[in-house]
Amino acid sequence: MTTYQKIIDSLGELSNTKKDIKSLEKFFQVYPGGYGEGDRFIGVSVPNQRLVSKKFYKEASIEELETLLKSSIHEHRLTALFILLIKYQKSEDFTEQEQIANLYLNNLDYVNGWDLVDSSAHFILGPYIQKTEKFELLDSLAESNHLWKQRVSIIATFHQIRNENFEHSLRIAEKLLNHKHDLIHKAVGWMLREIGNRSLSDELPFLDKHASIMPRTMLRYAIEKFDPELKVKYL
After folding, report:
1. Which burial class, exposed, middle or buried, applies to 23 when counting CB atoms under 10 A from its CB (0-12, 13-18, 19+)?
2. In sequence order, what are the residues at sequence separation of 6 or more whose Cβ sits closer than 8 angstroms to the Cβ of residue 123?
3. From CA 147, how far away is CA 142, in angstroms rounded?
């Protein structure tokens, strides 16, 4: 039996009831017109997906993971991403890391959910871009007019934020300032908040310049941890 099939079978054994699946479908908006329209769930919890990932990451090949990432089932795709990020983090071979990063970039059509993006972008693409200094990739994704690629562009910068480098996050945030979708508003606001958690002197000039035109959700996320008086000022 292939490792790919072992992963599929293991996830199948951990699937829950139809009631749980209905809740997931509602939460991830799989209905017509929702951002997750057409997605499929089998009801495997994230902790159980992580357990499966830790069990099989050593033996799973890159080719098998690419196939898994292209599955129509949400939990298959998320598990593939969990395994890829473990492989990336544990590898000391840049060639292998680059192979994983390129697989990720070439298959972003399948990283098509906020949880998929948020569980992978800053663990795979973030460090790869930092290492290679290919920061123009962030701009290309931000300018793509593709919802999930645009969310990847800002979430990937979380890696730089954690390393006290805010330049790229602020640049991408500015590019996405007038985006129409609240999933981008939330992502940008979240990254601005993370900058402020580390350096208000870097977040506040951005807010001073843009707060009056920022989408309300983006602004609320960005100022969530502010002292009440400062929060009122920006609201």
Report:
1. middle
2. 85, 88, 89, 159
3. 9
Segment 43-86, tens digit of pLDDT: 999 999 999 999 999 999 999 999 999 999 999 999 999 999 99
Ramachandran quadrant class, 24 (left: phi over 0; alpha: psi -120 to 50; beta: rest): alpha
Structure tokens at 96: 């292998």
- In single-letter form, the type of residue at position 109 comes to D
69/106 Cα distance (integer angstroms) = 11
Residue 2 has which token pair? 């292939």
- Phi first, then psi: give them for residue 73, nearest 5 degrees: -95, 130
Amino acid at 89: Q
d(C-alpha 77, C-alpha 112), whole Å:
9
Instruction: Give the residue ranges of DSSP H helices in 133-166.
Output: 136-142, 147-155, 158-162
Compute the distance between CA of residue 15 and CA of residue 209 in angstroms, rounded to an integer.
48
Task: Tally Cβ neighbours within 10 Å of residue 141.
Answer: 23
CB neighbour list of residue 112: distance below 8 Å, 6 or more residues apart: 36, 39, 77, 148
The pTM of the whole model exceeds 0.85: yes
What SS3 state is found at 14? Answer: coil
pLDDT in tens, 157-182: 999 999 999 999 999 999 999 999 99
Which of 172, 143, 167, 131 lies closest to 155, judged by CA? 172
The two structure tokens encoding residue 170? 């602020």
Query: Nearest CA to 75 among 100, 108, 53?
Result: 53
